[in-house]
Amino acid sequence: MSESALAEVVRTFVTDAGLEWEMGARSNEFVVVLPGEKKLKTVVSLVVSASALSMSAFVIRNPDENHHQVYRFLLRRNLRMPGLAYAVDASGDVFVTGRVPAGGVDAAYLDQLLGAVLAAADEPFNELLAMGFLTSMRKEWEWRVERGEPLHNLEAFRALLERPGDPPPAAR
């Protein structure tokens, strides 16, 4: 498949799927936003070349703590991911990446691929945050409780963060 033909397959798919997208800074780069549940959105870079489609999506920033535990967790998940893998950049930020031959890419494959990318970024998101940022989340929780600030963005972690005397969910 030619580079322009593959670019058209990608463009048609993301448009027909109703996904938010725009052209990226690189030649034939599509930047696609996938809506999630735990991670509200995952931004995926799809780069088309004559021989392959490469993808990369940010998962979490460099963990503040428990690097060994976070990376072990991700490496174990790598064993179950179809054509994708977690990777760490020079800053320690975590991405999910992959590269597939251009010839096999069609709308059905793109649907499966983007679904797998979204699952890789969204499904473990809260668990990764709890492993890599628990101390920061505890400080944020304490600060919010002391000032009577809303706790809604930390509710998923209430069981880990709540202290005796903290307001119940309905009290806010």
Topology:
Blueprint: H1 3-16, E1 20-23, E2 29-35, E3 41-48, E4 52-60, H2 67-78, E5 84-88, E6 94-101, H3 107-122, H4 125-147, H5 158-161
Antiparallel strand pairs: 1-2, 2-3, 3-4, 4-6, 5-6
Please name the defining characteristics of this protein:
single chain; 172 residues; alpha+beta; 6-stranded antiparallel sheet; 5 helices
User: Termini separation (Å)?
Assistant: 56 Å
Could you list the spans in which at least 5 consecutive residues all have pLDDT below 50? none
Q: What is the CA-based Rg, rounded?
A: 19 Å
Number of strands: 6
Strand order of the largest sheet: 1-2-3-4-6-5
Task: Estimate the strand proportion.
Answer: 15-25%
Largest sheet: 6 strands, antiparallel
Given the structure, what is the number of helices?
A: 5
Helix content: 40-55%
Protein structure class: alpha+beta
Shape: elongated
Put the structure in a nutshell:
The protein has 172 residues and is an alpha+beta fold.
Structure characterization notes:
This protein is of the alpha+beta class. The protein is built from 5 helices and 6 strands. It has a 6-stranded antiparallel beta sheet with strand order 1-2-3-4-6-5. A hairpin with a 5-residue loop joins strand 2 (29-35) and strand 3 (41-48). The model has no long low-confidence stretch (mean pLDDT 93).
